[in-house]
Amino acid sequence: xxxxxxxxxxxxxDDDADRVARWGERIRDxxxxxxxxxxxxxxxxxxxxxxxxxxxxxxxxxxAGQAPQLEDAAAEIDSADIFIVDSxxxxxxxxxxxxxxxxxxxxxxxxxxxxxDVVRLARGHSRVxxxxxxxxxxxxxxxxxxxxxxxxxxxxxxxxxxDIASSGLWFGELEGGYRPSHWPRLGHVPAxxxxxxxxxxxxxxxxxxxxxxxxxxxxxxxxxQIEALNPRLPSLSEMTLADVENSPNFGIGIQxxxxxxxxxxxxxxxxxxxxxWLDRVxxxxxxxxxxxxxxxxxxxxxxxxxxxPVALNAATGVWxxxxxxxxxxxxxxDASRLLGRNVWNVDQLSKxxxxxxxxxxxLVFCEDTSSFERLEDAKGFRTDLEGNYATRYVRKIDDVxxxxxxxxxxx
Length: 411
Fold this sequence. Notes:
Layout: E1 7-13, H1 17-33, E2 37-42, H2 45-63, H3 75-78, E3 82-86, H4 100-110, H5 115-125, E4 130-134, E5 142-144, E6 157-159, H6 167-171, H7 189-197, H8 208-211, H9 215-220, H10 223-229, H11 241-245, H12 263-285, E7 289-291, H13 292-298, H14 309-316, H15 333-339, E8 343-345, E9 364-366, E10 371-373, E11 379-382, E12 391-394, E13 401-403
Helix pairs in contact: 2-4, 2-5
């Protein structure tokens, strides 16, 4: 595995000061256990309320054509490598902290709000990097069997409070327990996207320059995949980063009276949005891009020890920046750089040989643990993904809920 990031600044926000403190302590503990020089700053609920008010004012200023005031109450959100916010921001009776004025600020600016809406404001009107929403709909650790639940969400990741201190979440470590296959190495995301933003980009940059797909690959995208990114254009070959920034699903969904805060913020919004589209729409279907574990599951003959779970799981722990072990001619470096995980262009994979096929003895990849298991030790389920790979597998862990539960195949 690659080294942990040198430093991360996490900003945590909620209406409940005690909850924010608990999350901050747990994050600092996982950073310390991995030798990461990270900080987890806990916004006081009243400071968070004022920060939300400042973001709203920035939106008003942007509409008037004025430059954003970046030294206001939202400055801490500007400074965040990773912004973590609870979904439910309405204060619970009896949980208020601070003096009367602070409690009034929380009630006025947070009551009735949800984390995803704050993320949308922050994405369009601050310099925030990665954004995470906690406890949206599910409060306990739950695996989404549809594999499409937050496809168009504004946050870069949706988790529950059970996940906050997972080293698998932050650093991609496979410890044999719960680690959904779609999780990134969260601690690495800001630096990875920052490296892409460090290139000579502007809002007129074609999307195709950042995703490494051939014309043939672009033609294999489904209409649903293309329209998810921007329903106004029929092909990715016509899209620029400005079109992503204007996307209702992966930009900030520009409203008729809304303007971006600045070109740099718009550019950051677009690149993070393009990353989410690759991660949630292009990659899961496996019609144009495929990552290493699914490549090995679909083409087990590419691994010499195809029946050895230790060998297969070691291969799936390889992230972008590490050695690309197979199918070099199909490796997509541009999409891998943006995603932070190695992916391949499906149309450039080598053709199977006469004896190359999946057999009943081959291991299956489990989406809930990011691990390979024997078929008899896994449970199949039907996702909402289009294409030929809608059936997937989970190991099914006792302390994890699976929803909708009826999707699991019973033997």
